[in-house]
Amino acid sequence: MKLIKENRIYSIGTYLKEHFGKKMVKLSIEAGFTCPNRDGSVGYGGCKFCSSGGSGELASNIRDQIELLKNKWPNVGYLAYFQSHTNTYAPVDILREKFYAALSHPEIEGIAIATRPDCLYDDVLELLSEINKEHFMWVELGLQSIHNATLDSMNIGYQLSDYDRAVCELRKRGIKTVVHLILGLPGETQDDMLSSLDYVCSSSIFGIKLHLMNIVRSSPLYQEMPDYVSFNSIEEYVDLVIRMIERIPPHVTIHRLTGDVPRMLLVSPEWSYKKRTILNSINNGLRDRDTYQGAKFAEKTNNQNQTG
């Protein structure tokens, strides 16, 4: 708790440095997967907010990324991050080949796998369990919202019950789970977003990613709602994120507080490419309010203990 009060949040960077004893960098990998709501097994067109690149435009291969980064960070370790599209949506033999190929690289010290809650089939879970016993690993679930009406309207193709099952199965196998939430989805209030946060934080997760809802030119949502803006200002977004940070349990690692979109693809919010400005504003706001991750969570826990 002392460390969080000093740093304001428990970042994944802090956790990884504690675990590995050095700075760790994720290398985004494009493995050639698709999604069940792109190929017709669940739907077509993909999630309405996704670009044609499947939210992974910056992904490339391991060797090229290490060559680019080794001069900037000469003494770091690397994690293979399977990011684009749904990285458990393939026959298990193909998944095994791709995951172990990444892990066999001499400079890769762990793996992170992003997927959908409805794409953790029994054989895939067994493969993940096998990898987890031998290597550092976490699995990322792109939940986005706990509200089924929102999931339906965004053509996501799964329901909250799929998430509940996925988290339960991963937890049974001791697999660390990171959950994605999108802030500013059409039709959702800030209370809806806070409800999503509280729900996932109660499900024994390892980490959380908060994404700003960006409208990108290649997304179906832009075609449908070209004038939609998720937040009117940086200040509005920052205020919500700070209130969310206060509700996140102190042991949950924070992996993201905004979003990365290539500026050439971005439509709105027009300021959202200013990632450093947004993050600095969040950090400054935490300091100015003299608050930190888990401040409201601890308050809630203390109140429950007093009344219990």
Query: Any idea what the CATH architecture is?
Result: Alpha-Beta Horseshoe
CATH topology: pyruvate-formate lyase- activating enzyme
Give the domain tally.
1
Fraction of residues in helices? 40-55%
Low-confidence stretches: none
Q: How much of the residues is beta strand, in percent?
A: 15-25%
Largest sheet: 7 strands, parallel
Number of strands: 9
Sequence of secondary-structure elements: HHEHEHEHEHHEHEEHHEEHH
Structural class call reads: alpha/beta
Overall 3D shape = globular
Q: In what order do the strands lie side by side in the largest sheet?
A: 1-2-3-4-5-6-8
**CA-to-CA gap between the ends?**
23 Å
Any idea what the radius of gyration is? 19 Å
Number of helices: 12
Residue-averaged pLDDT, rounded? 90
CATH class group: Alpha Beta
Pfam family, one: Radical_SAM
Keywords: 4Fe-4S, Iron, Iron-sulfur, Metal-binding, S-adenosyl-L-methionine
Protein name: TIGR01212 family radical SAM protein
GO molecular function, one term: metal ion binding
Description:
The model has no long low-confidence stretch (mean pLDDT 90). The two termini are 23 Å apart. The protein has helices at 2-7, 12-20, 62-69, 92-103, 122-134, 148-153, 160-172, 190-201, 220-224, 234-247, 275-288, 295-307, and strands at residues 24-29, 77-82, 108-115, 136-144, 176-183, 207-212, 215-216, 253-256, 266-268. Helix 4 (92-103) packs parallel to helix 5 and helix 10 (234-247) packs across helix 11 (275-288). It has one domain: pyruvate-formate lyase- activating enzyme. The chain contains twelve helices and nine strands. The strands form two sheets. It has a seven-stranded parallel beta sheet with strand order 1-2-3-4-5-6-8, sandwiched between helices. Helix 5 links the parallel strand 3 (108-115) and strand 4 (136-144). It is globular, with a radius of gyration of 19 Å. The protein has 308 residues and is of the alpha/beta class. The longest helix has 14 residues, at 234-247.
